[in-house]
Amino acid sequence: MKKLEISGHAAIGGRVKAEEVRVKGILKVAKDCETEIFKAESQFIIGGLLNAEHIEIQIYGECTAKEIGYQTIKVKYESFHSSGGFEIKGLLTAETINIALRFGSSNAEEIGGGKITVKRKKNSLFPFGKETGSLQTKVIEGDDIYLENTTADIVRGNKIKIGPGCIIGTVEYRTDFQQDPDSTVKTVSGTK
């Protein structure tokens, strides 16, 4: 299939394989979803692996997948962009990961990539509200990492900057480490 566009509700009992998948509604896939480009502006539930070269998500509802990532290391320019809540029951991996925390809680068991950026973002739907989003994960591993409002057991990488609102168990860095005074890091190991 070349392109799958959902504008409304769709439930697929098997797997999806397409060059491009765009969702403006609700998509439920029972098994894997394999595509080059995955763009969602609403809700989706993937029962298996979401495998794509480029993932862009703007969610104001539920976003769940057993695993989001890439089965082959031959893909070099993968990216994951999210500006809404998500739940990934396995590994989220991409070369570039940008997560904008607007509201609610986002969860991934593990996050891995080259450049990983997690930042608070003002909620444009309710600009006067005080609620901000947060990210919970067990492990974050990458080359260049910047985090805000994140709770993680382990953060491991070359260059790590822990911004405001974080609670981190252990940081393991190779070249550079910085920590905001409004964050908690229990253990730090590395060379500077």
Task: Please provide a written account of the structure.
This protein is an all-beta fold and 192 residues long. The protein folds into two domains: 9-64, no CATH class; 78-192, no CATH class. The protein has strands at 3-6, 9-12, 16-23, 26-29, 33-40, 43-51, 54-57, 63-69, 79-82, 87-101, 105-120, 134-147, 150-162, 167-179, 184-190. The protein has a six-stranded parallel beta barrel. The model is unreliable at 70-77 (pLDDT under 50).
Structure summarized in a few sentences:
Helices cover 0% and strands 68% of the residues.
| Mean pLDDT over all positions | 84
Instruction: Note poorly predicted spans.
Output: 70-77
Strands, total number = 15
Instruction: Give the strand order, joined by hyphens, for the main sheet.
Output: 5-6-8-10-9-7
Helix content: under 10%
Major beta sheet, specifics?
Answer: 6 strands, parallel, barrel
Structural class: mainly beta
End-to-end separation = 50 Å
Question: Strand fraction band?
Answer: over 45%
Protein name: Cytoplasmic protein
List the helices and strands and how they pair.
Blueprint: E1 3-6, E2 9-12, E3 16-23, E4 26-29, E5 33-40, E6 43-51, E7 54-57, E8 63-69, E9 79-82, E10 87-101, E11 105-120, E12 134-147, E13 150-162, E14 167-179, E15 184-190
Parallel strand pairs: 1-3, 2-4, 3-5, 4-6, 5-6, 5-7, 6-8, 7-9, 8-10, 9-10, 10-11, 11-12, 12-13, 13-14, 14-15
